[in-house]
Amino acid sequence: MRTSHAILILTLAAAVAGCSNPGLRDLQPPGPGPDEFSVLPVKPLTQPKDYAFLPAPTPGGGNLTDPTPKADAVVALGGNESALNPNTAVPSSDAALVTASSRYGVPANTRQVVEEDDTAFRKRRGRWTGLRLFPVDRYAQVYERQSIDPFSATEAARQRGLETPSSPPSE
Q: Is residue 167 domain-resident?
């Protein structure tokens, strides 16, 4: 009698635990709290070389001590800070790339269209993936048909005579 009650309780507990739906790799913050990555330290105060050539203050505008993380990263990696200015022309070294990538036109709402298509795809494919007894990676299930097997791709490239790096052993 005791054993049957214990089995019944364990079965019910497993059934209730299997009903949880953690979502599809939800990377959103868990609550409305502050985002610690949005707080950036300001640059240190420095004394200007000449007070006569200071920029005029602009209400709501930028300040010399305001953080510029993108520009700082570009300079730290050896790039040119002026390349971040959207008003500058495309460098001649990148002109061929820009021409090739925009040969069919560049719609302004590409990101929104891709997001809507992906949401519809996940909704269609993820309809029955929530019915599992044990927690599984729903992301891998939904996108399983679109994944590439690296070992078969490497083997196909080798069959065509292409040089390929060595792959880690398959399990």
A: no
